[in-house]
């Protein structure tokens, strides 16, 4: 019994259904009693029998009263009146007989002989018409009938009481059972709720304990808790799952750390390779001529690109760095993309032109490293998968569907035929070409933060292909330096229509007036429209001329009028000594910001200023005799120079003045040449200044010493004592490099 009264969910369920069954049984029984037709008819018949019995008694009383009157001597009652009463009484007895035939339970105890005798007396009277005899007989019958009626009433009362007692007994049994079962159900349910609350509190306490443990628990403590005897089964299951998660997390962290080290190692190895290449090139060009120096400059540019790529790769592998990179410097990004795209195109012997609309904001919110790599992958894959020989990269912006955003559009066209303008390519039948979605949603979701609606599709017309990349951005900083070339006129001449159109649009977007010439004669005819500090821009492909001699002739005419001559070339092998006859040489495709900066700087300078700039040298030499000798050599070549005897003084002068070339003694007391060079490079990087050419000078001749100078940041190393021919060759070489940017 004690075990039965313990909180048990199945027992409570059984009790609940028993209670419900009792309630339903009680309701069904009550409903049956209310709706029972037989019982209702029986009750009605019993009531009717009682009423009929009373009517018969009343009839007998009336007949007796009439007979009493009629039997008196002086009575004048008529026989017809007595006959009427006897007939009515006889009919009532007949009706009573018919009713009592259906209710034998009432008649079984008393019989109906009393009423039968009355009928016999009436029949006898109807034969004899003896009133006295009838009176006497009815007196006896009345007494008998009265006892019959009393028996009927008593029997009816007895049956009603028995029926009510049965009803009450059944209801008491049902209600008693209901109360008993409900009480037991309530007791067990209360016990169950109490036990459930106790278990709930215990589990809550367990979870609180586990929660507090998780703040300080480690891998070893988890194992200790699992092996502890006092730990409950629930806690052991939780700690077992936690231990499994710990093991998986540690395994994942181990793999992540390994991948991170591999990525960093790869990036650092690439950077180490670029440093080796740069240092080796600087040593190898020691005996090279001007063309070799220009080729070295191109190699150095390629290694710088590789180094930037390695930096981007390291940033991409560093998740923390990526998450903190919230701003995109778009023109830095597009410049890196143009350089790498150009390298990719040259590797596949394809010509490329790039145009960037100056309406694009300077800065926008998002992840620059992720966006750069995603665009680089899309563009590189498109170039690698196409056989078209010509490429146009076009970056523009437009309004977005949302008023608070802008849409950046990057279109990469690959085509076969020659076109005069970028609009001609954009107006090809692209609406007839099927679109293929090449956007990698998983990659873009992982790499892009703050950039919405990134889409990339390709189209192929057979004779031309197009990659369209678009994405929505929130602007952080708009362009503030537009119309920088306002008031300037530039005469542009070239054979390639697209190249000329790209340069013309880039210049006109900055407010310049652009005149286009198609031949050498057109150039000479249009020169009269140019003023001082205007310019002429030539491409490296002009029909019907030899570029070297033409530039020499043209420059001679322009110098007196202070009109600048610019040249755009594809590679250094095409220019030979042309750099001596132009004011600035560009390699295309060029980046828009540097392009405009160099155009503006060159246009605003005059010939005298240029000579002054190109003749400023600094000699850093602690030996006064060697300083004097080098100064005399430079004076003999008509170059002006300043001299200091300490690296610290040289650093102070560099911060206050601009020098084209610094001759730096490698070993000096105080601050030596290597330390001074490192500090100068650091200062230039912090101030974002173009690097000054630094020529190291040392009496040591070993390659190890020369390499230390190069690693410190020097561009070239010469040996002491100074030699006129070597000094002049070095100056000529690096002045040529400076002119081509």
Automatic annotation (TrEMBL):
Residues annotated as transmembrane: 12-31, 168-188
Superkingdom per UniProt: Bacteria
InterPro entries recorded: CheY-like_superfamily, Sig_transdc_resp-reg_receiver
Keyword S-adenosyl-L-methionine: no
Domain Response regulatory, chain residue ranges per copy: 616-735
UniProt-listed CDD domains: REC_hyHK_CKI1_RcsC-like (cd17546)
Record key words, sorted: Membrane, Phosphoprotein, Transmembrane, Transmembrane helix, Two-component regulatory system
Modified residues (4-aspartylphosphate): 665
GO biological process, one term: phosphorelay signal transduction system
Protein name: Response regulator
Native source organism of the sequence: Aliivibrio sifiae
């Amino acid at each position: 019994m004690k075990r039965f009264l313990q909180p048990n969910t199945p027992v409570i369920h059984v009790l609940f259904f028993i209670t419900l069954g009792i309630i339903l049984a009680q309701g069904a029984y009550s409903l049956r009693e209310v709706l029972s037709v037989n019982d209702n008819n029986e009750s009605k018949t019993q009531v009717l029998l009682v009423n009929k019995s009373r009517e018969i008694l009343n009839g007998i009383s009336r007949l007796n009263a009439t007979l009493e009157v009629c039997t008196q001597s002086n009575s004048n009652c008529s026989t017809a009146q007595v006959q009427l009463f006897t007939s009515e009484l006889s009919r009532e007895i007949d009706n009573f007989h018919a009713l009592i035939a259906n209710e034998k339970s009432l008649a079984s105890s008393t019989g109906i002989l009393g009423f039968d005798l009355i009928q016999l007396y009436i029949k006898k009277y109807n034969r004899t018409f003896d009133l006295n005899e009838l009176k006497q007989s009815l007196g006896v019958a009345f007494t008998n009938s009265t006892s019959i009626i009393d028996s009927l009433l008593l029997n009816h009362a007895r049956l009603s009481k028995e029926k009510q007692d049965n009803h009450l007994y059944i209801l008491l049994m049902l209600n008693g059972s209901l109360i008993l079962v409900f009480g037991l159900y309530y007791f067990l349910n209360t016990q169950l709720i109490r036990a459930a609350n106790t278990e709930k509190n215990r589990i809550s306490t367990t979870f609180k304990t586990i929660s507090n443990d998780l703040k300080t628990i480690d891998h070893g403590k988890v194992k200790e808790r699992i092996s502890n005897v006092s730990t409950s089964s629930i806690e052991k299951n939780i700690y077992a799952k936690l231990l499994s998660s710990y093991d998986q997390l540690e395994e994942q962290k181990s793999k992540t750390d390994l991948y991170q080290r591999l990525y960093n190692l790869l990036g650092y190895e690439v950077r180490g390779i670029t440093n080796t290449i740069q240092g080796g090139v600087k040593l190898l060009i020691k005996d090279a001529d001007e063309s070799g120096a220009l080729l070295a400059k191109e190699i150095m540019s390629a290694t710088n690109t590789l180094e930037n790529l390695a930096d981007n790769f390291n940033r991409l592998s560093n998740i923390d760095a990526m998450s903190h990179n919230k701003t995109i410097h778009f023109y830095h990004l597009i410049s890196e993309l143009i350089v790498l795209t150009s390298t990719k195109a040259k590797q596949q012997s394809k010509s490329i032109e790039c145009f960037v609309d100056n309406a694009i904001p300077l800065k926008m919110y998002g992840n620059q490293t992720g966006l750069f790599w995603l665009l680089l992958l899309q563009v590189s894959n498109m170039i690698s998968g196409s056989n078209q020989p010509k490429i146009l990269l076009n970056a523009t912006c437009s309004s977005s569907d949302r008023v608070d955003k802008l849409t950046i559009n990057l279109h990469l066209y690959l085509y076969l035929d020659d076109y005069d303008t970028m609009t001609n390519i954009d107006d090809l039948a692209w609406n007839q070409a099927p679109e293929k979605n090449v956007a990698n949603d998983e990659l873009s979701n992982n790499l892009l933060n703050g950039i919405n609606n990134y889409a990339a599709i390709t189209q192929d017309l057979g004779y031309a292909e197009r990659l369209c990349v678009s994405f929505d951005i929130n602007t952080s900083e708009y362009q503030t330096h537009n119309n920088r070339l306002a008031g300037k006129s530039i005469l542009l001449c070239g054979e390639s229509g697209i190249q000329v159109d790209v340069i013309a649009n880039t210049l006109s977007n900055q407010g310049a007036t652009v005149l286009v010439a198609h031949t050498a004669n057109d150039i000479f005819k249009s020169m009269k429209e140019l003023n001082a500090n205007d310019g002429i821009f030539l491409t490296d492909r002009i029909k019907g001329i030899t570029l070297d001699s033409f530039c020499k002739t043209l420059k001679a005419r322009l110098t007196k009028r202070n009109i600048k001559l610019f040249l755009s070339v594809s590679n250094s092998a095409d220019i030979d000594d042309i750099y001596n006859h132009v004011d600035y040489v560009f390699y295309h495709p060029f980046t828009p910001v540097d392009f405009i900066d160099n155009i503006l700087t060159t246009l605003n300078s005059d010939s005298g200023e240029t000579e002054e700039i190109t003749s400023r040298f600094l000699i850093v030499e602690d030996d006064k005799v060697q300083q004097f000798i080098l100064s005399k050599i430079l004076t003999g070549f008509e170059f002006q120079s300043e001299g200091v005897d300490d690296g610290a003084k040289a650093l102070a002068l560099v911060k206050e003045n601009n020098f084209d070339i610094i001759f730096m003694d490698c070993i000096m007391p105080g601050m030596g040449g290597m330390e001074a060079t490192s500090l100068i490079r650091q200062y230039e990087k912090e101030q974002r200044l173009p690097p000054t050419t630094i020529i190291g000078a040392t009496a040591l001749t070993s390659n190890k010493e020369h390499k230390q100078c190069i690693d410190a940041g020097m561009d070239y190393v010469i040996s002491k004592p100074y030699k006129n021919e070597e000094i002049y060759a070095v100056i000529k070489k690096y002045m040529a490099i400076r002119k081509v940017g």
